[in-house]
Design brief:
- The structure is a single chain.
- This protein is α/β, with parallel strands linked by helices.
- It has eleven helices and eleven strands.
- Strands 7-8-9-10-6-2-1-11 form an eight-stranded mixed sheet, with helices on both faces. The protein has a three-stranded mixed sheet with strand order 4-3-5, with helices on one face.
- α1 crosses α10 and α4 packs across α9 (229-244).
- The longest helix is centred in the middle third of the chain and has 18 residues, at 106-123.
Length: 278
């Protein structure tokens, strides 16, 4: 089968609000036919806590700790739970729902897109696999997650190594387009992550701390060495090319496109009305 060409963007280190505005702009341009499918990699500066579209700031997030650690704070357009974007490489995939061989269901489309992550981990020498809940109870638990922390437990088709979650992703569908983005953990500061969330008691916090160590792991722990964002980018870009049978072609935004991203950032993701809406 002939390989299709996708746009490839590495936007480097940007603020959380700019990163989310960038992804939304790509989705909009793709929906209008102004751009083809996109694979984008990016990082965060400053380190940022992002929360899912449906999360409640007042009920779940300790904003004093967010400020104490001098973190950025942003609400994503996608669902899911809180993610500390610090030592990681983040990816986003923007592709139409009717793309050839793209499944209609969210979970199956998630599996297809996440195949790029699976191949990326394998390129780094890690034996990764998909997490698939086995029992009815496990499947029901995914519908009512127990904490606000993303890496607390694997979801459908999350990537796991030795039973531990190594990448957290979320997906939204708007205007006929799929936007899936997620965090590839290069390293993990568990104490900082836990400190950012509210718990009913310190005992619950302690249980979460212990559980997180058992359920989540970063690449540096698995590989026994430091993996740079640059090395990860090479591994995962090749992974997406293989899994999706595509060829990546570098793309740079025009000045007009860049200004449009900044307009979305100012109006939405950099605006407290959006960020603290719940």
């Amino acid at each position: 089968m002939e390989k299709r060409t996708w746009h490839y963007i590495n936007s480097g280190k940007c603020s959380g609000s700019f990163n989310m505005a960038f992804d939304e702009a790509l989705l909009e341009w793709h929906s209008k036919g102004e751009m083809g499918p996109v694979l984008r990699f990016y990082e965060w500066e400053p380190a940022t806590l992002s929360i899912g579209y449906f999360q409640s700031v007042s009920k779940e997030i300790d904003m004093e700790q967010v400020r104490h650690h001098q973190l950025g704070f942003v609400r994503r357009p996608t669902g899911g739970r809180g993610v500390l974007h610090e030592h990681e490489l983040t990816y986003s995939v923007i592709v139409t729902e009717d793309y050839p061989n793209m499944p209609e269901t969210v979970t199956e489309a998630y599996r297809v897109i996440s195949g790029g992550l699976l191949e990326g981990f394998r390129n780094l020498g890690l034996d990764a696999s998909f997490s698939v809940p086995n029992s009815d109870e496990e499947r029901q638990n995914l519908k009512k997650p127990g904490s606000a922390v993303c890496f607390d437990t694997p979801s459908w088709y999350e990537l796991v190594v030795e039973g531990k979650k190594v990448a957290g992703s979320a997906q939204t569908r708007q205007k006929g387009v799929i936007l899936q983005h997620g965090a590839i953990l290069l390293s993990l500061d568990e104490e900082k992550l836990i400190s950012l969330f509210k718990f009913k008691s310190e005992a619950v916090r302690d249980r979460m701390r212990i559980g997180l160590r058992e359920k989540a792991v970063a690449i540096d722990q698995l590989a026994g060495r430091t993996v740079s964002p640059e090395e990860a980018e090479v591994a995962f870009s090749k992974g997406f090319e293989k899994a999706l049978n595509i060829k990546l072609e570098p793309y740079e935004l025009s000045d007009a496109q860049l200004q449009y991203v900044k307009k979305i950032e100012q109006k939405k993701y950099g605006n407290d009305d959006w960020t603290f809406r719940k």
